Amino acid sequence: MMSRKPIQTSVFSGVQRQPLRNVLIHAPTIIWVDKGQKNLWWHDQELAFSRREWLLVPAGQYLTFVNEPGATEFHSRCLGLLTPPPEEWLLQDEGAISTQTPPSTAVTDSLAWLFEAIFAMPTLSHTAQQQMLFALYAELRSQRALGLLFPSANESLRDRLSRYFAVEPGREHKLEEVSLHFNMSRATMIRKLAAEHTSFRDLLAEVRMVHALSLMQESRSQLDIALACGYQSESRFAARFKLLFGLTPRQYQQTL
Questions:
Q1: Rg value, the chain, Cα
Q2: pTM to 2 decimals?
Q3: I need a surface site. Which of 32, 81, 200, 223 has the fewest CB within 10 A?
Q4: pLDDT of residue 97
């Protein structure tokens, strides 16, 4: 069953340099670096993110970056936004931001307060959480930054499916069952994903690998992480991880 939570929160840290590539962002996400610096490769240039600015990433993007610990450590917090803003906001703002616009906005006192409140609000009711999230959207819109997270009012099947996988990445997702959930046939889902340059299996693997990055923050064993991500073979999990991110799970864990 799909989660009704309007947000997903995650924390990433490290004491050594962390180079990662092809990290799928499955939902519109705000990334705030608390300590150190994130160096992002974007349109053939390098952008640096610290505590002064947010990285705003729409769904379906692949990020290549290096987390630099600085003097002590690297630490960042992420807000995955699972409930979109009102559609009329997106329709009014659609096309207002160029694809060349840097994916960042300065952190104002108002934005910082809303981020902190939302990040710490899991005990609130769903309705209260959603209203807080809409307040954040309104503030971002006033800063002309909402379009960076939601460049279009139309959501692709790829983005909807990756967000569906992200609720339970380790579950044995079967194409027949998932396509039924999305009210389409198996063949239709395959065809539509192919038109969006992906496949059911590849998208599921990518979501699982990003989930693995989060699990590694909890100091779990590699076998435990592999099983939690739906892999019965530790070696197959490690091979897929390295193929996607460019380093082995053990190499990544050594940076934590």
A1: 18
A2: 0.88
A3: 223
A4: 66
Mean pLDDT of the chain, nearest integer: 90
Classify strands 104-106 and 7-14 as parallel, antiparallel or unpaired.
unpaired
Q: Which pair of tokens denotes residue 15?
A: 């004491």
Q: What is the mean pLDDT of residues 64-75?
A: 92
In contact, 220 and 256? CB cutoff 8 Å = no
- pLDDT confidence bin for 3, thresholds 50/70/90: very low
Asked whether the beta carbons of 245 and 234 are under 8 A apart, the reply is no
Compute the C-alpha angle 197/199/202, nearest 5°.
110
Written as one letter, the residue type at 72 is T
Tallying the residues shown for the chain, one arrives at: 256
Query: Three-state SS for 106?
Result: strand
CA distance 221 to 229: 12
DSSP for 10-75 reads EEEEESS-EEEEEEEE-S-EEEEEEESEEEEEETTEEEEE-TTEEEEE-TTEEEEEEEE-TTS-EE
- The neighbour count for residue 224, using CB atoms within 10 Å, is 13
Give, as one character, the DSSP assignment of residue 84.
P
